[in-house]
Design brief:
The protein is α/β, with parallel strands linked by helices. It is built from eight helices and eleven strands. Strands 1, 2, 5, 6, 7, 8, 9, 10 and 11 form a nine-stranded mixed beta sheet that branches. Helix 1 packs across helix 4, helix 4 runs parallel beside helix 5 and helix 6 runs parallel beside helix 7. The longest helix has 16 residues. The protein is globular. 43% of the residues are buried.
Length: 254
């Protein structure tokens, strides 16, 4: 029987990773996985060694975005081998790779999810990475707390959308980062606006200004406003997000 993952097991793996970023929101459906994928591609295009830990066990989206949803995890002497993306060889680990079918749901309670996250942190053979980006599930419960306490991210990237309701919930994620002594590296607003491809008019469909107000209130770097864009949607649906050319993190200072 395999022994339980210890804190020293996790530390040994993570010591080989230079910088760890948690992507969080507190709310579902805001585009955390898309932001995670775009940030990973940004780093990979700049020659960095990048890994993604998909910590959203109940709704994993990262494998689909990269077109690797049918991949399976292999085991080597080093541990669980992450799946490599097709274009930039980004290392990805997701619960999706361990399921018998991609449609199989994970019906687990919080403590079991937290335990499996520790298994991923202590047994995945990341090797030496410049960046490990952790795509967190919604909320401020067991899974995000496990990542904050055990992976000890160097910082968190907060994802919001323009709605008042989203901003109110996202504020809880910002406070969670602060209470777990995790620096907030920046805030992005997803689905910020729609620009008409014919006339160029910008429509703020969901409202305007809530994310920028949050950034000012908490003195957070306002990184980007990502629009509702058919090109991004198309590449995401096709599982080819590595082929999407726009770099929304061009001026991200980390």
């Amino acid at each position: 029987m395999q022994k339980r993952v210890s804190d020293s097991d996790i530390k040994e793996r993570l010591d080989k990773i230079k910088f760890r970023i948690a992507v969080m929101s507190g709310k579902g459906g805001v585009g955390k996985s898309t932001a995670t994928a775009l940030l990973a591609v940004h780093y990979a295009r700049n020659g960095k060694k990048v890994g993604i830990l998909d910590a959203d066990f109940l709704g994993p989206s990262i494998p689909h975005l990269f077109g690797i949803q049918n991949a399976r995890v292999s085991v080597s002497d080093e541990g669980l081998e992450p799946v490599l993306t097709q274009r930039y060889q980004i290392k990805v680990m997701s619960m999706q790779f361990l399921l018998p079918k991609k449609e199989t749901p994970v019906i687990w309670r919080g403590p079991l999810i937290a335990g499996m996250l520790r298994e991923f942190l202590g047994r995945v053979a990341w090797g030496e990475l410049d960046y490990l980006i952790v795509d967190l599930p919604p909320g401020t419960g067991d899974a995000p707390l496990t990542v904050m306490q055990d992976a000890k991210p160097n910082g968190a990237l907060i994802v919001s959308t323009p709605q008042e309701l989203t901003a109110a919930v996202v504020e809880k994620a910002i406070n969670m980062a602060e209470e777990t002594n995790t620096a907030v590296l920046g805030l992005i607003e997803n689905m910020s606006f729609f620009e008409c491809p014919n006339c160029g008019h910008k429509s703020h469909i969901f409202g305007k200004g809530k994310a920028s107000e949050l950034a000012r209130k908490y003195k957070i770097e306002y990184v980007a406003e990502i629009p509702i864009e058919t090109e991004l949607l198309r590449f995401s649906d096709l599982g080819r997000i590595e082929d999407y050319e726009t770099d929304w993190f061009e001026y991200f200072p980390y």
